[in-house]
Amino acid sequence: MQSKILSRRDLAFLLYEWLDVERLTERPRFADHNRETFDGALDTAERIATDLFATHNKKNDQNEPHVVDGKVVLVPEVKTALDAWSQAGLLAAAQDYELGGMQLPCTVEKAVVAWCKAANIATSAYLLLTGANANTLLKTATPLQVERFVRPMLAGEFFGTMCLSEPQAGSSLSDITTRAVPDPVDGPEGERQYRLAGNKMWISGGEHELAGNIVHLVLAKIPDAEGRLIPGVKGISLFIVPKYVLDADGQPGERNDIVLAGLNHKMGNRGTTNCLLNFGEGQFQPGGRAGAIGYLVGQPHQGLANMFHMMNEARIGVGMGATVLGITGYLHALDYARTRLQGRHPAQKDPAQPQLPIVEHTDVRRMLLAQKSYVEGALALVLYSARLVDEQRTAPDEAARTRAGQLLDFLTPITKSWPSQWCLEANSLAIQVHGGYGYTREYNVEQFYRDNRLNAIHEGTHGIHGLDLLGRKVSIQQGALFRAIGEEVARMAARGRDVPGDVAQYAAQLDTAWRRVEEVTLALYGAGDMNKTLANASLYLEAVGHVVIAWMWLEQALVAAPALARAEREEDRDFYRGKLQACRYFYQWELPKVEPQLALLAQLDTTALDMRDAWF
Amino acid sequence: MQSKILSRRDLAFLLYEWLDVERLTERPRFADHNRETFDGALDTAERIATDLFATHNKKNDQNEPHVVDGKVVLVPEVKTALDAWSQAGLLAAAQDYELGGMQLPCTVEKAVVAWCKAANIATSAYLLLTGANANTLLKTATPLQVERFVRPMLAGEFFGTMCLSEPQAGSSLSDITTRAVPDPVDGPEGERQYRLAGNKMWISGGEHELAGNIVHLVLAKIPDAEGRLIPGVKGISLFIVPKYVLDADGQPGERNDIVLAGLNHKMGNRGTTNCLLNFGEGQFQPGGRAGAIGYLVGQPHQGLANMFHMMNEARIGVGMGATVLGITGYLHALDYARTRLQGRHPAQKDPAQPQLPIVEHTDVRRMLLAQKSYVEGALALVLYSARLVDEQRTAPDEAARTRAGQLLDFLTPITKSWPSQWCLEANSLAIQVHGGYGYTREYNVEQFYRDNRLNAIHEGTHGIHGLDLLGRKVSIQQGALFRAIGEEVARMAARGRDVPGDVAQYAAQLDTAWRRVEEVTLALYGAGDMNKTLANASLYLEAVGHVVIAWMWLEQALVAAPALARAEREEDRDFYRGKLQACRYFYQWELPKVEPQLALLAQLDTTALDMRDAWF
Fold first, then answer.
1. Is the pLDDT of residue A415 over 60?
2. pLDDT band for position A325 (50/70/90)?
3. Nearest residue of chain A to residue B228 (CA atoms)
4. How many residue pairs from chains A and B have C-beta atoms closer than 8 A?
């Protein structure tokens, strides 16, 4: 039976036939690997996801975390699943051997992680926050901090969080007011110790009993000599603030001064505790006095830059989460459409004839094909981004590493936002395919839809990523990132031009679309007024996102078309035909949506800019 | 303080400034009415909705109906609210005086009903099903049936349902298998009595203790002499099947043979019980034997035609429900955007400056303006449809009545579907404006989003309405409905051409768009293969829907533009400016989405038609 979590066939296509991850094994870091070790990791992930994650996805949703005697209670299956994942070594799958990792390429690791996310997005959040936290510390922390906090996280003994937002500072991080004041007392081995006080909002995994400790990465401001906070992002520093202060042996000891102030009750993603934490209120008094003990990570006032590592990783993670929720919804809808009998063809006038599986209805196939084009396009983008991470880290020559970094930086807001928008739409279509049943909690798809709605909000809202793309990524390095993407698109379009049949036409469409993006981008920057340039940045994000996914589909078609010609087994031929048909769908139904968007942008439309509060 | 349920100002604009409902008072049926009586009904509705419906909307959602000792338990506020509504006479607001009604025009009644729906869609469902049930019976039932079932419903003593679907027959009603067999025993006053047996799914309001009785309107098949059911819709008849059989005095007596087989647990709309009912299982034995007692309504085998009255009314009701959920979400988002402080303008470089209300950010204004353009466009369409009902019923000359009926028939699938799609999108944007808070159940907007997702499913899915529009409404009466709409659009476009400024441009855009719809429709019917003609019917529904809403916006702009020129009070000028800006938004941002859709239709695209099951 085919899994309804993810398709191994599609993963194999993307990893081996398209992104050619086997070639990475030529590089020293991955020299011990081969397709068998990659598949072994995927097998393990599939098995644990299927047996331990998917099995409590609904239970998790229906038994939301709640507080009993000051402790957060979760269904016990959460810990079982997380422990199994860590014990199988999957939490550290991409880390160095020296840190207990498997040194898998990022591309393969992302495919591994896709399994637990698709099976249970809420439970997997604990793992992914922990991994991203550890990766951030590995970039900037001291060897002592790595020893004390990172190693236990990679072993699944401690879990991690990111504490950025505050009730008055969500998108506007420059307005945080959490204070970090140097402690007269030194920390372990003479490390400078701080005391933190402030309120942190939207902390996923912020409180629970799943691990021996929780390592909070906290943004806070160190006051100047007069006790004033420096306004803006320049005042922000990054701190490790553990739930339990470690004793001399590195074991969780005294309770730190961090209090759970309340759990948020979300529409979806209910299995992930999300809370308001109060730091330094004095309810706990580590070292005999109030104030949450923390340790500076990296340089003071560089907190946001340091945190950006975690944020960028988390953003690609959000894109992946949105994508795989889309995929599992699609696979559920497909399964339903193949088994549910309802109605007859329009030309069939005899009501005594048996009813058909609804997949036989063109409109149902349209909804399935739309889902396929969204979710497989999104998965391609996420894995392409992961492949860029591998290039950035391990490509033999520096120019290739730099270029991969540029492409990745440009794509990150799209990799985060496009799946959040369109794989949610896929989940809506999955409900629609199920009809009334899809709207009930007796089935699974309504939960995917609720879970997925979060993704356009957290790790930077849709609007913030629009500003990031148009206001920053397009223009930094004198436009080098933007040019790099244009070159990649042009290269693919040129390759496509020589392929017989529809692919050549797609290539031409893509080429035209990207040229139009270039024109429009110039027009926007010619406005001479940043308020005008950026007025419709969200629309720009959406339009460019669609063109990027069209590019991802052309990439896939360029692999599928010759593979179809070569394939001998009927099931392989069907698979490639499906890829080509989904590509056709995207070029026929989706890419044309971009032109009116670009036309609006090119006009420097001021409809929203001109609107006044009083007119609403 | 402005209500966050609905805007009275906007209702006044639509009812009095645009649809001119005061002119209806020149007609005999409405002769006792005037603007004061209309406003009086709206005042009452607003008060009850605000005090008794909105106040338990969240409680209703969080305390879902459940079964205790075989009875469905609801929060007590539901009954209080429903009783207040009935006792104020609002349930029968549009009915004849003779039936205890107020004889309000349908247009005004729909505006009245909008209040309770916007305040609490789940609780109001009981009223609306009851009203639609009563209206259906008033069309076709015998005087005795009216006396025994309709009068108590209009007084709020009995509630009504519609029982169409079965587990194996949802969209495909022709496949129902519920049987109705003549009973040897006669019913009251010699009425022919039937015994029904079968399972009915998705019955909203199907079981509860809110009223003295539940009047089920049930579709069933009368077997032929050999006991066989006639395949297809031709075999369907309509029956009244009360929960309690009435005694000789018309009071609820013996329990009928109808058993609650299970409650559905929905994503939203949780306060409305929705259930599977088993008829004729024998658990209750009215008159000493098994079989649910029912009474034929109208002629045998005409059940679907008779039920269509209820379905059409319910479809406009669904459109209204989707619309007002969009409106209340928009008003909540607007309120939040005016009070939430976050961030600064792009040009503001000083982070020490205070944060702004987020309505000052262009992207937030875009999201609010999009919501305004969707929800006020949808409300215009729903009230325009209601105005057509008034014309159809009370216009002095027959030609006008016929034409109103044609316009209404054509618009019904759009009035049902367009708000279900776009006011859901408005609710998504309302969440987005709230950021993370919007995703939590501590706020209200996530519920509106969950509630609204139902509307593209029930009373005919989106796909079914696409087929209805393109496969039926376009072609019946030799295309007379389609031509009638075209003439109305052309008339408005012609009027708009003479208005100075942007309105003339909108009129030209609308005219072009409709001509394109005409061309495309001809191309689709020229395919010579109904499978091809109808392959993309959902897309046709969406494209034509957008053009229709553009028309509704032109109608509003044609009122608002001169009113702005005349207005003296600043708040009136702001209101009209807002209308014109929302119209501008729709013509700049929305209507252009239609051209690629129409281009795809004109090509007779077969991407979905060609897709094979095996390729997924």
1. yes
2. very high
3. A352
4. 264
Do the beta carbons of residue A91 and residue A158 sit within 8 Å?
Answer: no
Is the Cβ–Cβ distance between B431 and B508 less than 8 Å? no
Averaged pLDDT for residues B54-83: 96
Q: Domain coordinates of chain B in residue numbers?
A: 1-119, 160-300, 302-460, 462-611
Task: Tell me the chain A residues in contact with residue B596 when contact means C-beta distances shorter than 8 Å.
Answer: 592-593, 595-596
Of all residues in chain A, the one with the smallest CA distance to B460 is A435
Residue A206 main-chain phi, psi, to 5 deg:
-70, -25
The rounded distance, in Å, linking the Cα atoms of B574 and B2 is: 15
Nearest CA in chain A to B338: A613
CA distance A202 to A199: 10
Nearest to B172 among A343, A454, A609 (CB): A343
Facing A432 at nearest CB: one of B345, B360, B457: B457
pLDDT of A87-122, one tens digit each? 999 999 999 999 999 999 999 999 999 999 999 999
The answer to whether residues B510 and B556 touch, using CB atoms and an 8 Å cutoff, is no
Average pLDDT rounded to a whole number, residues A449-474: 97
CB contact under 8 A, B436 and A170: yes
ipTM value:
0.98
Q: Can you identify the CATH homologous superfamily of domain B302-460?
A: Butyryl-CoA Dehydrogenase, subunit A, domain 3 (1.20.140.10)
Nearest to A589 among B338, B454, B607 (CB): B607
- What CATH number is given for B160-300 in this structure? 2.40.110.20
The per-residue pLDDT for B29 is: 98
Task: Say which of A364, A462, A608 has its CB closest to residue B432.
Answer: A462
pLDDT band at B1 (very low <50, low <70, confident <90, very high): low
pLDDT digits (tens, 9 = 90+) for B397-411: 999 999 999 999 999
Per DSSP, the three-state class of A196 is: strand
CA distances to A91, A105, A390, B139 from A28, in Å: 22, 11, 12, 82
Which ranges constitute the DSSP H helices of A440-569?
A: 445-452, 462-468, 476-497, 502-525, 530-533, 537-566
Is pLDDT at B2 greater than 80 in this prediction?
no
Which pLDDT score, from 0 to 100, does residue A500 have?
81
